[in-house]
């Protein structure tokens, strides 16, 4: 698996949004962070002012992620909000980059199953494919002095709204 040269997207802090435009930027950040790619995004919402409930859409690589947003007023120009996505966009490059960033210092080899170039997945879904890591001998969890010595570690990929989760499973 080659080292991905893709820049890592940065996710805007959800708490620091200003108005619906700020909310759109935060939702765009969530979609890009889950996909793991910096690509052009566009978004729109059904309203320009924070109402109790509305819909926003973020388009990423021709895939539309629809968010149902609920808000609660906290003052004249202040509100708290929650957003629920219908699905997230996951990319092969984003998965490989996340695994590489996490495991390359601890591994002698990394490989991943053949994930689609991009796919839609429900938030909190576990993808059917896995990545595999061959730990270094000095790795505390999986190296020479562990009960898992010389074993390949499978990495399960979970999809979240704004990130990917990597869970190690010993063979």
Topology, please?
Blueprint lengths: L18 H17 L5 E5 L7 E8 L2 E11 L5 E7 L2 E4 H12 L3 E6 L5 E4 L4 E10 L17 E8 L2 E8 L1
Antiparallel strand pairs: 1-2, 2-3, 3-4, 5-7, 6-8, 8-9, 9-10
How does this model look, in words?
With 171 residues, the chain is α+β, with helices and mostly antiparallel strands. It is built from two helices and ten strands. The chain has helices at residues 19-35, 92-103, and strands at residues 41-45, 53-60, 63-73, 79-85, 88-91, 107-112, 118-121, 126-135, 153-160, 163-170. The strands form three sheets. A four-stranded antiparallel sheet has the order 1-2-3-4, covered by helices on one side. A four-stranded antiparallel sheet has the order 6-8-9-10. It starts with 18 loop residues before the first helix and ends with a strand. The mean pLDDT is 86.
Features:
alpha+beta, four-stranded antiparallel sheet
Specify the overall morphology: elongated
Number of helices: 2
The proportion of residues forming helix, as a percent range, comes to 10-25%
Report the span from N to C terminus: 20 Å
Q: Total number of β-strand segments? A: 10
Measured by DSSP, the beta-strand proportion falls in 35-45%
> Which structural category fits the helices and strands?
alpha+beta
């Amino acid at each position: 698996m080659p080292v991905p040269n893709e820049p890592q997207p940065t996710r805007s802090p959800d708490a620091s949004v200003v108005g619906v435009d700020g909310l759109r930027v935060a939702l765009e950040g969530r979609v890009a962070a889950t996909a793991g790619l910096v690509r052009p995004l566009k978004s729109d919402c059904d309203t320009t002012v924070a109402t109790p409930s509305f819909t926003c859409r973020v388009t990423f690589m021709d895939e539309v992620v629809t968010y149902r947003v609920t808000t609660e007023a906290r003052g004249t120009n202040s509100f708290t909000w929650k957003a629920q996505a219908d699905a997230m966009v996951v990319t092969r490059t984003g998965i490989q980059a996340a695994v590489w960033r996490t495991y390359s210092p601890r591994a002698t080899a990394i490989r991943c199953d053949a994930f689609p170039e991009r796919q839609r997945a429900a938030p909190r879904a576990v993808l059917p494919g896995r990545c595999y890591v061959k730990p270094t001998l000095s790795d505390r969890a999986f190296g020479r002095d562990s009960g898992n010595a010389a074993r390949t570690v499978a990495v399960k990929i979970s999809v979240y709204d704004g990130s990917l989760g990597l869970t190690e499973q010993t063979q």
